[in-house]
């Protein structure tokens, strides 16, 4: 079944925990990025640890190999189960993230194409395909690909085979969950759940859409 990953981009620690708890029966993982960590601190990973759900650090790590390694070590020491890294900094840099993740028993996902309109300026023209190949070469656990462009997901699936594809851009950015859920291993949903009048109900609706 396609996973449902809650993107918890709220800025208040208490509200973040409440939303995650309310949605938890219907979701498979929680993705936390800079907005929440900068607002609430890295300790938010421990605060959410009691949910028993995998926590994905969406830090889009994009530095030299040594710095990437240092960042990822901190991520896993903080209690995260997975990290998201950029691939455009090169194979050695991405490989440092994958190695740090695997050394900690965690996972690393590489961004190969982003979901917003401007992403086409750089990711199209063969770059996303190269990044998908890089993710395979680095033995990344999966890739991030855009729910806003299902045709592109299909192209990238040809390259990554059975590797996990996690896909943001559903709902608020216009991606159709019914279409995308058939193509990917997990849909990533933020605002359509955490800004809903009742996040638990919204999460249940998205969970129902999954195959
Ligand atoms: P929302 O469902 O509210 O649009 O949130 C999507 C989440 O996925 C955000 O955290 C965003 O930073 C992230 N994301 C994205 O939208 N597109 C990408 O290509 C990569 C992302 O990580």
TrEMBL record:
Keywords noted in UniProt: Decarboxylase, Lyase, Pyrimidine biosynthesis
Gene3D superfamilies: Aldolase class I
SMART domains: OMPdecase
Pathway(s) this gene product operates in, as recorded in its UniProt entry: Pyrimidine metabolism; UMP biosynthesis via de novo pathway; UMP from orotate: step 2/2
Domain Orotidine 5'-phosphate decarboxylase: start-end pairs: 3-206
Main enzyme class: lyase
Keyword Lyase on entry: yes
Name of the protein: Orotidine 5'-phosphate decarboxylase
EC numbers for this chain: 4.1.1.23
Gene Ontology molecular functions: orotidine-5'-phosphate decarboxylase activity
InterPro entries: Aldolase_TIM (IPR013785), OMPdecase (IPR014732), OMPdeCOase_dom (IPR001754), RibuloseP-bd_barrel (IPR011060)
């Amino acid at each position: 079944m396609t996973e449902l990953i809650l993107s918890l981009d709220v800025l208040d620690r208490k509200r973040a925990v409440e939303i995650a708890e309310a949605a938890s029966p219907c979701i498979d993982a929680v993705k936390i990025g800079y907005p929440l960590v900068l607002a609430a601190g890295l300790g938010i990973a421990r605060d959410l640890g009691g949910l028993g759900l995998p926590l994905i650090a969406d830090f889009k790590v994009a530095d030299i190999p040594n710095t990437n390694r240092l960042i990822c070590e901190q991520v896993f020491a903080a209690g995260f189960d997975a990290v998201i890294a950029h691939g455009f900094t090169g194979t050695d840099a991405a490989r440092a993230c994958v190695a740090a993740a695997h050394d900690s028993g965690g996972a690393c996902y590489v961004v190969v194409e982003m979901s917003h309109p401007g992403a086409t300026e750089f990711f199209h023209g063969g770059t996303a395909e190269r990044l998908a190949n890089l993710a395979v070469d680095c033995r990344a656990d999966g890739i991030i690909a855009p729910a806003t462009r299902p045709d592109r997901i299909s192209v990238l699936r040809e390259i990554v085979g059975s590797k996990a594809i996690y896909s943001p851009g559903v709902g608020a950015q216009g991606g159709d969950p019914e279409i995308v859920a058939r193509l990917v291993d997990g849909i990533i949903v933020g605002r359509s759940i955490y800004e809903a009048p009742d996040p638990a109900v919204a999460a249940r609706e998205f969970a129902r859409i999954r195959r």
